[in-house]
Design goal:
heterotrimer; A alpha/beta; B alpha+beta; C mainly alpha; A: alpha/beta; Beta Polymerase, domain 2; five-stranded mixed sheet; two-stranded parallel sheet; 3 helices; 22% helix; B: alpha+beta; Cytochrome-c3 Hydrogenase, chain B; three-stranded antiparallel sheet
């Protein structure tokens, strides 16, 4: 493969904002972008996340090929997930924020669009208890696997507790 | 709970594969990392990585500490390049709070960060030698690293974790005999690099072990969220220091190496070349140090305005980023740390399908993961 | 009175041989650590004795005092006998190696052939160790070593056929005597190269040390051995190294050549052997290792045809030269 030089690309996020607003209106997806700290922060609906990501990735003008991170956070009355995407060809970055219900949070997995979202989503599930629908391998990643709590929730307090670990099966 | 089933990750399994466990104690997995491989003779059919042995709950701890109290914990994420983590964190705070760093502090930060990058790449060189089976590169690399550590100890006061870069500047100014020793390092290091390359890079056995192994195409690298030298080896000449310059990097003149084939050999060459470019940056930064003060006045308890920010830097292994959600108080509401080794390890199963066991170790070494980053 | 004199003489030779072997092994281990240390920009052992000469003795004593751990589910007979059998070829071959003119324990007419026949036994002990350890890593190491040793014994033996053709005899003393005019390394340079490469592969020495590939399968077949059993594999590797370099000296470098005096002959022979050993240690500290399929390819597709070609050309040249002389 030949080397593509991305060193001189300077993206203007204002331009990105306009373009994304127009394209989303054409596709019928609700999105409200605004410019904060020179980055595009956008609000979207939880149900639209797969079509929105697909549009951002596969559209020739937008081409957001790279998912930077998926952050989940627990506010008292809702959960929020932020998807950070970046475009190498244009130098634009966007943070898409979706809000989820507090009682039974659930969202679709974007693993068919970006394969790199795999472990990010597993971590969100085990740390915050948000159900990721359609993920092929939802097992605990960083924790041991026999806890019944989700550590990053605000309801989980950091306190000192003693637990005894007894292996459940003989390790042959 | 500890036996992992394979039914979800490897489809159509015939029943006579052998399971080999490359356990957490292993000389070649960088840190405590375990993976269970299903092998068919010498070829790997699928792996299941198990991580989390070094999980310390850093993100949860961030919510109960002030911003300045959290800073030493950031050192311990990617402990091979600790100063660069600190640089990223402090710059994220400065951007949100609107603090301007003086020019002299920016130049000193660049010197420290690039020296640390050289140290981290020397570990890669040594470990690559060990994985291919030669014992000598390891000792050569660590001997050079010792010299860089002596410089960093003079400057920052530590060898592996530093707590040197603060919000608004650096903690201490350059001591008196630092510039003399730095000049000696700058003049001797390229000759040592040439010795390293003569020993290892042109070696036929090494080339046949690494050419054509572990090929990742550019689209796959983008898809799996790879960054840093791993992405550059796959044909994308991209560096955050050039794309979104910070701390005065746009004043220095340096090149970005990239590889054409996306195999292990290219990633190795990219990192060797990066060491030379880092030395170039150090030379330019040390040559033109502006006078001035090194620290700007910052309130004792830092409070950030309400808002969210994703800020990223070019770390030694790739892109390291902080997503900070602040509610206007003394402690962050949510601090998400994005590390490069996390994404690289998630792609391991995809890259290792069909490789030999010996190649699996070499490929894992070329990703250059550090488990403090993965587990946080 | 004759039978007990014969017995005493045989026992004396045995004691000398075994003593020589152990001293050689200790000296070689020390030499390896020092040579590798200096090549790697550091110094090697320094503390015990001047320049660390007593280090190996202390290490051997330490290993003798370690706890004898036998894992629970091992296959007892292969596991316990493998460290013993690995020494058998080394000790036996010493009976046939000549060190100087007339200094040889047993002089038979086909000593070269006999040496190679016994050298093959060492591969069995590695397979026994790998199987008996009841461990997947050890099994992988044992299988790899079996494949490696079988593939490289053929070029090893075939590369010496050229020497036998030129010397006209398989007796090692005769071969050294036949090198009066020219050392066989000059006409048989290809044979020398093939011999040294195959010998490194037989000994599991870098760059062919896949059975004990530390960074992949963590010491391969000797992963379950502790204490003196582990030391015996280690010592056997060094003794085999000496034997192979001694063979190379006898076959290609002229043995003890200019000196017919026994004392000087032995010393010169040892000097040449140690030069070859130094070269193998030099290779060990420089090169990385091959992958298993790459070096199987190398053994079967490169070394074997080359050694056959060597025999062919040597035979043809000797035939032509003899005919010319006869004319």
């Amino acid at each position: 493969m030949e080397i593509i030089d991305y060193t001189d690309i300077r993206g203007d996020n204002q331009e990105a904002l306009e373009l994304i607003k127009n394209k989303a209106k054409e596709a019928g997806i609700r999105i409200e972008p605004e410019l904060v700290f020179d980055q595009v922060n956008a609000d979207a609906d939880a149900g639209d996340i797969i079509p929105l990501c697909r549009m951002l990735k596969e559209d020739k003008d937008l081409s957001f090929e790279y998912i930077r991170s998926i952050t989940g956070s627990d506010f008292e009355d809702r959960y929020e997930i932020v998807y950070s995407l970046y475009s190498f060809s244009n130098g634009w970055s966007i943070n898409i924020k979706i809000k989820l219900d507090h009682e039974k949070p659930a969202v679709d997995s974007i693993i068919e669009v970006y394969r790199g979202a795999d472990w990010f989503e597993r971590e969100i599930w085990e740390m915050l208890g948000i159900d990721i629908k359609g993920h092929p391998n939802l097992k605990t990643l960083l924790l041991v696997g026999d806890e019944d709590f989700h550590p990053l929730r605000k309801s989980f307090e950091l306190k000192w507790e003693e637990r005894k670990y007894i292996p459940t099966e003989k390790f042959e | 709970m500890f036996t992992q089933e394979f039914e979800n990750t490897v489809e159509d399994l015939p029943k006579d594969y052998m399971e080999v466990n490359f356990g957490p104690h292993h000389p070649s997995t960088h840190g405590v990392f375990r993976f269970i491989a299903r092998v068919d003779g010498e070829r790997i059919a699928g792996i299941e990585p198990v991580v989390g042995y070094l999980h310390r709950g850093v993100e949860k701890m961030a919510e109960s500490r002030t911003y300045i109290q959290f800073k030493p914990l950031v050192d311990r994420l990617d402990y091979t390049g600790a100063l660069i983590n600190e640089l990223c964190y402090c710059q994220a705070l400065e951007k949100m709070a609107g603090i301007e760093v003086p020019a002299r502090a920016q130049a000193i930060r660049v010197i420290a960060a690039e020296l640390n990058r050289i140290c981290a790449h020397l570990i890669f060189y040594g470990a690559m030698g060990l994985e291919a089976g030669a014992f000598t590169p390891f000792l050569f690399g660590f001997a050079e690293r010792e010299k860089a550590f002596q410089l960093l100890e003079m400057l920052a006061g530590g060898r592996l974790t530093f707590n040197y870069i603060t919000v608004g500047g650096v903690r201490k100014d350059i001591p008196e005999d630092f510039m003399k020793d730095l000049d000696r390092f700058i003049s001797t290091f390229p000759k040592r690099l040439k010795v390293f390359e003569d020993l290892f890079t042109g070696n036929e056995i090494f080339k046949s072990r690494t050419r054509g192994i572990g090929v990742i195409s550019r689209e796959d690298a983008f898809d799996w969220a790879m960054s840093g030298p791993t992405l550059r080896g796959s044909g994308a000449r991209f560096d955050i220091r050039k794309a979104e310059p910070y701390s005065g990097y746009d004043k220095y003149d340096f090149d970005i190496p990239a590889g054409e084939n996306g195999d292990v050999y290219d990633r190795y060459l990219v990192r060797m070349e990066e060491m030379r470019q880092s030395l170039r940056i150090v030379e330019q930064a040390a040559g033109g140090l502006p006078p001035g003060d090194i620290q700007v006045k910052v309130p004792k308890v830092l409070k950030l305005p309400e808002g969210e920010l994703y800020y990223r830097n070019e770390g030694t292994k790739g892109e390291i980023g902080f997503y900070i959600i602040s509610d206007g108080g003394k402690t962050p509401y949510r601090m998400k740390i994005r590390t490069p080794s996390f994404s690289h390890l998630s792609a391991l199963d995809y890259v290792l399908k069909g490789a030999y066991i010996a190649d699996a170790i070499v490929i894992l070494g070329s990703f250059d993961t550090v488990m403090g980053s993965v587990d946080r | 009175m004759i039978w007990w004199q014969v017995l005493l003489w045989a026992l004396l030779k045995l004691v000398i041989a075994v003593g020589f072997i152990f001293i050689t092994a200790l000296v070689l281990i020390y030499m390896l650590r020092k040579v590798m240390g200096h090549m790697q920009y550091r110094m090697g052992p320094r503390h015990h004795g001047p320049h660390g000469v007593f280090q190996t003795i202390f290490d051997a004593v330490k290993l003798l005092g370690k706890e004898n751990i036998i894992p629970r589910d091992v296959d007892k007979w292969p596991y316990l006998w493998a460290p013993v059998i690995v020494f058998v070829p080394s000790l036996t071959i010493f009976a046939f190696l000549p060190f100087a003119e007339n200094i040889v324990a047993t002089n038979i007419e086909i000593s070269l052939f006999f040496v190679f026949a016994i050298l093959g036994i060492s591969s069995i002990s590695l397979i026994m160790a790998g199987w008996g350890s009841n461990n997947k890593y050890a099994l992988l190491g044992g299988l790899r070593s079996a494949a490696q040793m079988m593939s490289y014994e053929i070029p090893l033996i075939l590369s010496t056929v050229g020497v036998v053709i030129m010397a006209g005899s398989m007796n090692l003393t005769e071969i050294v005597r036949a090198q009066q005019n020219i050392y066989y390394i000059v006409p048989q340079a290809l044979g020398f190269f093939i011999f040294m490469t195959s010998a490194l592969a037989e000994l599991n020495h870098t760059p062919f040390d896949i059975p004990e590939a530390e960074s992949e399968i963590v010491a391969g077949f000797n992963i379950e051995y502790s204490g003196f059993r582990f030391a015996s594999f280690f010592l056997a590797e060094f003794v085999n190294l000496f034997i192979v370099c001694a063979l190379a000296t006898l076959l290609f470098l002229g043995g003890w050549h200019p000196f017919t005096n026994p004392v000087y002959g032995v010393l010169f022979f040892l000097f040449k052997t140690y030069i070859l050993i130094f070269i193998t240690m030099w290779i060990r500290s420089t090169f990385p290792r091959f992958r298993i399929d790459q070096f199987m390819n190398f053994g079967w597709k490169v070394l074997l045809p080359l050694s056959l070609a060597n025999i062919f050309v040597t035979g043809a040249v000797v035939l032509i030269v003899d005919n010319i002389r006869g004319l």
